[in-house]
């Protein structure tokens, strides 16, 4: 890959490895991971459970340290949490139960001591974006699972991050809600023009959302293939039934089921 | 009504006890020498509360409880939080802790008198010793009740160590911290009263012991009723605080 293309990479991961325990006898969780995500792309990582895809995302987010290799986001080498350029979302919404939906969305700004009126204004805009204006003053225990993940989306966007890292954010939701949330996420992504790296174990979800799918294998966790999804945008639910989608899904299924 | 009934239940129960007590005593079902009528005991209690000497004893006991409480609750909680956060330290100390928890602390009272006398300091030291371990256990539970996912989330959004403690740990642990204070209070009262009964120049525990020895049932029962009322009041106050802060914590 030429130097110019490297320059436009929003996320660049090279030679990344993660080992636990003793270098000789320890467990290799990830080996020789390379990723290139251009600005504005929606990229998914799909793989079987235990392949280390969550660990990989945590390393890219600066929450876990790698044992080899490097992560660069927007040209900056990641050595720790970087909330100014990275927004994160997890499988669980991890909202603070003692704060309202709006206060939860404001939380990253409150940590940076942004004045209350500015925080509130930003939070209300984002709650509007995720369709939760009416629930702004409700507490997490008063919201459904899908609503809680919407609050988490709003929270991850409040610092206007360049990159959104999502670790199976809809895995705990029922299928209907998951599909609806996927469509809403695509809409938000297309409006904001940000870059998304999305980890999932769902093949359909991985293809449906993505420009590019990275397929991972387990033991040790590694990248098996990089697949471009040539489906037009905006995506619609009917595309899942198309022959192209079916063939792609089948191909990834085989890549994961019987890796070379 | 469905909301009100559980709240009123303790009061209704106490009223029932008073009624049964009064009837049993007046009807001769219970020996009035052993169980004088409730109304009579209340009259004696009123007289006691009116006496300056009794109030001085009560004040001394209350002060001993307050001092021990203020020392032991932060001490126990901090020790517990530390052990809850440091698995290595916990593994090192847990056998010793279990040993000290299971030993009845009252068997050491004579040694405490030997070492610290029978004054104010000894009451406080004994109550602190009795209470420390149980409060520390609550502290361990409190530290472990903080979900790792919330801490990770805060870190991802750039929380400093200080912010993580103030914004995540403290509010997440709050219910168990109040619970620790509540249990700590009960144990502190128990510790001070036992130490006073065992050997003390003054205090409510001393009076209760003396009245029991000399079979002065009205005074003894009056002081028991008073201690029950005061401790239940403080306990309910802390529980109310706990409940009122807990509305939205059931589910994260």
Walk me through the topology.
The complex is a heterodimer of chains A (260) and B (252).
Chain A (H helix, E strand, L loop, with lengths): L2 H5 L1 E12 L6 E12 L3 E5 L6 H8 L7 E6 L2 E2 L8 E4 L11 H11 L4 H14 L15 H13 L5 E5 L7 H18 L2 E6 L2 H7 L2 E6 L4 E7 L14 H15 L3
Parallel strand pairs in A: 3-8, 3-9, 6-7, 7-8
Antiparallel strand pairs in A: 1-2, 1-4, 4-5, 9-10
Helix pairs in contact in A: 3-4, 3-5, 4-5, 7-8
Chain B lengths: L3 H23 L11 H13 L1 H34 L1 H16 L6 H8 L3 H25 L3 H9 L4 H38 L5 H10 L3 H28 L8
Helix pairs in contact in B: 2-10, 3-4, 3-6, 3-8, 5-6, 6-8, 7-8, 8-9, 8-10, 9-10
Describe the protein's architecture and organization.
The complex is a heterodimer of chains A (260) and B (252). Chain A is α/β, with parallel strands linked by helices. Helices cover 35% and strands 25% of the residues of chain A. A six-stranded mixed β-sheet of chain A has the order 6-7-8-3-9-10, sandwiched between helices. Chain A has a four-stranded antiparallel β-sheet with strand order 2-1-4-5. In chain A, α7 (203-209) packs across α8 (243-257). With 252 residues, chain B is mainly alpha-helical. Helices cover 81% and strands 0% of the residues of chain B. Chain B contains ten helices and no strands. Chain B has helices spanning 4-26, 38-50, 52-85, 87-102, 109-116, 120-144, 148-156, 161-198, 204-213, 217-244. In chain B, α3 (52-85) crosses α8 (161-198) and α6 (120-144) packs antiparallel against α8 (161-198). The chains are: A alpha/beta (260), B mainly alpha (252). At the A-B interface, α3 of A face α7 and α8 of B.
Looking at how many chains there are and whether they match, the oligomeric state comes to heterodimer
- General form of chain B: globular
**Biggest sheet features of chain B:** none
Total E-strand runs of chain A: 10
Rg for CA atoms of chain A: 18 Å
Return the CATH topology of the domain at 1-85 and 164-170 and 198-260 in chain A.
Answer: Rossmann fold
CATH architectural designation of the domain at 1-85 and 164-170 and 198-260 in chain A: 3-Layer(aba) Sandwich
Q: pLDDT below 50 for ≥5 consecutive residues: which ranges of chain B?
A: none
Largest sheet of chain A: 6 strands, mixed
How many helices of chain A does DSSP assign? 8
Strand content of chain A: 25-35%
Sheet-strand content of chain B, in percent, reads: under 5%
E-strand count of chain B: 0
